[in-house]
Amino acid sequence: MTQPEFSDIEDYLDGVDGKSFADLAKGMDATEEATLRERIEQQRNLRLAVGATGLRQQLEVIHEQRGGHGKVEDPPVATEQPARSGGGLQIALLLVGILLLSLAAYFFFRPTDAGVYAAYEYQDPGLPVVMDVTADPAFSEAMTLFKRGEYAQAQSVFSALTLTANDTLIYYRGASAYYAGDLEIASGELQRVTDDTASLFQNRAGYLLALTLLKTGRTEEGMEQLQSIVSQPDHQFRGQAEQLMRELVN
């Protein structure tokens, strides 16, 4: 007795025309019925595995090409190829569906790099704004903008200052550029402060520099900067750097 086609079992599972198991198994002996039940169970599991991904239609086409009407012949080979059983095909398709679903779930739920970096951001609060006759009004304006989170405007004012560049000014030029998303400018300014061992802003600059390098695709340099931070027991950001390295490696 010939086993039902893939589409016949699909109709049975979908309840098309009230088709029953007895209709599919008509004329079969006990062994053939057992084989049919196994095929139905495999096909039901396959639908559960791949239905959500839209692969069901593709699998039907594959089945038609390999085992249904209008079969697409394999290229001729030197030796005779063993015939594939319908059950073997179903198992193979089931495994492919499960693999594709697993890969889809991995990439869907896997956190993006942007999400990883966001969890380790450092938000510099800025310096107190001193409003007196000795304070540079432009610097005070830039710091006020920085503290408000208006980083692009702060960067513009910091960069226009005619004060002699010192580590404080260089750091906040770099920090405002970093928060404004101008990462190329940020990396240069933050590098200068990171290299200044006498600067009170060295730790902050070094950590923001590591994030800047990672975000601009300079991953090897970014990891080296994180490792440099981790190697300093008293570094302000040692814990964050260590956790971020572990996250990126895994």
Topology record:
Elements: H1 6-14, H2 21-24, H3 30-50, H4 56-66, H5 86-109, H6 113-119, H7 137-148, H8 151-160, H9 167-180, H10 183-194, H11 202-215, H12 219-230, H13 238-249
Helix pairs in contact: 1-3, 3-5, 7-8, 8-9, 9-10, 10-11, 11-12, 12-13
Describe the structure.
The structure is a single chain. This protein has 250 residues and is mostly helical. The chain has 2 domains: 6-109, no CATH class; 115-249, Tetratricopeptide repeat domain (Serine Threonine Protein Phosphatase 5, Tetratricopeptide repeat, Alpha Horseshoe), CATH 1.25.40.10. Helix content is 65%, strand content 0%. It has helices at residues 6-14, 21-24, 30-50, 56-66, 86-109, 113-119, 137-148, 151-160, 167-180, 183-194, 202-215, 219-230, 238-249. Helix 11 runs antiparallel to helix 12 (219-230). Residues 51-56, 69-75 and 106-112 have low confidence and may be disordered.
Question: Which properties best describe this structure?
Answer:
250 residues; mainly alpha; Serine Threonine Protein Phosphatase 5, Tetratricopeptide repeat; 2 domains; 13 helices; 65% helix
